[in-house]
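Q: What would this chain look like folded?
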Amino acid sequence: MESARSMQGIRIRGLTKRYPAGDGLVHFVRSALRQASGRLALRGVDLDLEPGRIYALVGPNGAGKTTLLKIMAGLVLPTEGRIELDGKPLSARSAAVRETVGYVVSDERSFQWRLSVAENLRFFATLEHVPDRDARVREVLEHVGLLDRAEAPFRTLSTGMRQRVALARGLIANPRILLMDEATRSLDPLAAEDLRVLLASLFPPDSPRTLVYSTHNLAEVEEFCTDLVVLREGRVVASRRVGAGTEGTALDAGCFTLRTRRPLAASLLDSLDGLTLLRARGNTVSVRVAAAASLDALVDAIHSNGLGLLELRIDPWIEDLLGTPGELAS
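A: My prediction, written as structure tokens:
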């Protein structure tokens, strides 16, 4: 396979998607007259995605994350715009999409529960026209750490293992681009961490592959993603490098929700600079932070006091996080 340096990557320009307002004669007439109607999910999205990088796609519900991923996967046709791979058009109807793009969702329902893991993957390998199916199934199971469970019925697997099988399915055709839609949403913290470690090993910096990963979990963005793309109301409002060694991120200031094993004491929050408590309910608090260092100090305090951090995520219901397109893109 080519090296990452010899590839141009993915170029998305003017991607727009308007879902129809309804069915029947009215929709037909409006379409014939080219009258705009229906929900606008994407509004002129422009993105450049490089090989060897892991992109976190974040934003509130309804921002257009899933629509963007489905268009890239060839499952939904855009209303306007184009996607290019290495300078060549990537059409939803072309075989190149099947050969180039893998798609993984958090609530995968297409597996046959009575079949073994290997039997399920062989079925999908057949659909993808994968040569030497048995060898490829064995290879991807080894990649995701499930080779010893190859003959186990799918129904006997834990939620974390099922998500690994879904990842194996996404990798079965050896795609250049892997799209994952909130892959850790239904996983417990340990299983989610295991999956992130696995993904980081599968997508090293010198890889010719690209991972696009939608999430609401801030910890995932900071922990293993190399780039951040923020969507709001169908528009890209921020796109920049993140992670270790990066000076500043789009998440340097904003609002976040933390869930802990034991309740956070108000006195602990009061003792930290740069934090404003927005709300507290049980073991979950939402805070506004002035800088990334303030959030780091809070996380350190949670760990040092043995409170057990279970979740750290962008708080999608607070406008302060996403602001206006101009504010975030600056």
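DSSP finds twelve helices and 14 strands in the chain.
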